Every structure is written in structure tokens, then in C-alpha cells.
Amino acid sequence: MNRRLRIGEASRVLGVSVSTLRRWEREGKLKPYRVGKERRYSYEQLMELLGEKRADAVAIYARVSSRDQKKDLERQLEYLRKCVEGKHQKVYEVKDIASGIKEGRKGLLKLIELARLRKIRAIYITYPDRLTRFGFDYFVEFFKALGVEIIAVNGKEFKEPEKELVEDLIAILTSFAGKLYGMRANKIKKMVKELRDEG
Question: Are 58 and 121 in contact (CB under 8 A)?
Fold first, then answer.
């Protein structure tokens, strides 16, 4: 079903001002529907316009699990910067300090937003596990549907540090323990501490 957006919503989708939208209407570039005195814009038409306007832009994405890995985060970014240097008109730098299994990562959501608004053509990562710990192929298909290619510059072999893998496993156990047993936060923290101490 084709969504019809108000002028304010349409301006946010396109990343232009309301006055620009009105000018484009006068120029015949956009043809909104009228509902009484209000304009309504076809979402599909906006996406077509974005597709025509989309610059040669890409995103580079780096991720580590914890703050004490910030040096590794910067190494990833520096490596990716060199990989795309001079090849594209614009490069968005996106990063996360979070587990690869965590939902709602700010950086990942930013990538989805950039792809949804057709602002990028590709996402560069060092290895697949930087983007997600599980379901990498699903992410590839998801972004492909938005016209965005995911490029793992070092291939598909997973290269997670041992410590980070332990952190992700603890995150999985913590999540399942809380859901399955309804454990209180202090009990979960105690369990996690014991797991780390044993590791």
C-alpha cells in the first residue's frame, strides 16, 4: 500500500525544507495529492526522487563490545577509511560500542536509516561479526532490498577476539536467564560476575 505523507513528513524523508518541496511542486518536479487544503505526498514517488538524487555515498561501520577496546575500534575505522579513500563522494562513519547480539544499537539503527532514506549505496565492514554476531546473511538480504550492498573487506571469516566472544556469550546467557527464570537484576549481576571470575 502506498503511503501518503503530510508535507512535514515528506520534507524529513527527503531531507529538504518545506519551502523546497513547494518550489519543486511549482516546477513540476513533485505532484502532491490534495486532501482539502492540505498536500499529501506519495511515499513511492519520494523514494523514486531519492533514488534519482542519491549521491555516490557509502558508510563505514566499526564495532567493539566494550569501552576498553576503543583502540581496536579506531583501528577498524582507520582501516576502513583507507579502503574507501578517494572512491566515493561522501563517507558516513558509524560506530558502536556494544555486543554484536544487542538489539537497538544506535550505530546499526543509523545504518538502517541511511539505507532507508537511500543516502548510501554500500556499507563497508572489516568482518561480518562487526555488523552482527548472528544472522549476517539476513542482514545482507535486508540491506540489498534497500539497494545497499554490504562489503566485508577482509572476507567472511569471523575474527572476534576471545574476550569479546566471552562477553557476547555472557550477554546471551544473561538474556535467557532473565526471560526464562524471571530473575531479579541483582541475581543476574551476581551470576554474570561469577561467570567472569571463572573465565
Answer: yes
